[in-house]
């Protein structure tokens, strides 16, 4: 696993954008796996800047988002579809018809299961994800794969832990009762199939999850630890998030 320690979130965004853009420019069709939340925002801002100022082209990009809450309409202020439109897709020349976000509005459980299979099929049909972007939860989750998730899991429904709902209450008027209880999320197995993965983390609150996932045992107790088994996984973390790492050999820039 490659670990790059950066000074702040702006540098984290630039370094992560560099990794993706180097790859993107080489491909006729490029498949990105995307995350929501606070962490990838600096990377999205950097990608938008490069599009505006340097003409970075996204017309060859297909994207698949990791997850979506169940029960929020697509136009809800906290739906991940809306988050992606507002924070990235509306500002670049990506074909929105080729931006996929799990559909959290399906009511019937059987239909959700069919949707999850369909989502996996869509990813497979375009040849798999080339670069998957991840954040990490304070409990080590990736996507909404909470501790205890099978390391081989694929896209499915997951119940959110109280820890995650508390962490995310900041987006819902600080009221945990407004945070949905369920989500659709790509599985850890889905993430592991991506050709390359970059996990971003910033702030002291992520230090325990970062050290456990990088240096602890590979275990479903810390879902991100599965990335230790990925052939091409990079962490880009700021100094606060890296503050509990103990091993030598990490890159510092
Ligand atoms: C969101 C996602 C989550 C977040 C994680 C960190 O699509 O997959 O795993 O990456 O909860 O969230 P932030 O970045 O808000 O700290």
Topology (SSEs and partners):
Elements: E1 2-6, H1 9-24, E2 30-34, H2 41-54, E3 61-65, E4 67-69, H3 80-87, E5 99-100, H4 109-125, E6 131-134, E7 156-159, H5 162-168, E8 182-185, H6 188-193, E9 196-201, H7 207-215, E10 233-238, E11 251-252
Helix pairs in contact: 1-2
Bound molecules: fructose -6-phosphate.
Please provide a written account of the structure.
- With 253 residues, this protein is α/β, with parallel strands linked by helices.
- The protein has a single domain, classed as Rossmann fold, CATH 3.40.50.
- It is 30% helix and 18% strand.
- The chain is built from seven helices and eleven strands.
- The strands form two sheets. Strands 5-3-2-6-9-10-1-11 form an eight-stranded parallel beta sheet, with helices on one face. It has a three-stranded antiparallel beta sheet with strand order 4-8-7.
- Helix 2 links the parallel strand 2 (30-34) and strand 3 (61-65).
- Helix 1 (9-24) packs across helix 2.
- The radius of gyration is 17 Å and the shape is globular.
- The relative contact order is 0.19.
- The mean pLDDT is 96.
- It binds fructose -6-phosphate.
- Fructose -6-phosphate is lined by residues 35-39, 66-67, 135-137, 141-143.
């Amino acid at each position: 696993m490659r670990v790059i320690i950066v000074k702040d979130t702006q540098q984290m965004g630039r370094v992560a954008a560099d990794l993706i853009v180097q790859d993107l420019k080489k491909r006729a069709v490029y498949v990105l796996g995307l995350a929501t939340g606070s962490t990838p925002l600096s990377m999205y801002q950097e990608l938008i800047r490069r599009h505006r100022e340097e003409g970075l082209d996204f017309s060859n990009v297909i994207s698949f988002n990791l997850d979506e809450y169940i029960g929020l309409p697509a136009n809800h202020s906290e739906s991940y579809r809306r988050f992606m439109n507002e924070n990235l897709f509306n500002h670049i020349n990506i074909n929105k018809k080729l931006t996929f976000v799990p559909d959290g509005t399906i009511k019937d459980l059987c239909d959700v299961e069919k949707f999850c299979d369909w989502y996996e099929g869509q990813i497979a049909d375009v040849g798999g994800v080339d670069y998957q972007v991840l954040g990490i939860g304070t409990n080590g989750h990736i996507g909404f794969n909470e501790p205890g998730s099978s390391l081989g899991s694929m896209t499915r429904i997951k119940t959110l832990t109280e820890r995650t709902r508390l962490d995310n209450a900041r987006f819902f008027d600080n009221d945990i009762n407004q945070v949905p209880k369920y989500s659709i999320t790509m599985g850890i197995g889905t993430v592991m199939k991506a050709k390359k993965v970059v996990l971003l983390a910033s702030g002291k609150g992520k230090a325990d999850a970062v050290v456990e996932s990088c240096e602890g045992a590979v275990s479903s107790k810390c879902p991100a630890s599965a990335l230790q088994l990925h052939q091409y996984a990079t962490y880009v973390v700021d100094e606060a998030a890296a503050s509990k790492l103990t091993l030598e050999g990490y890159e510092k820039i």
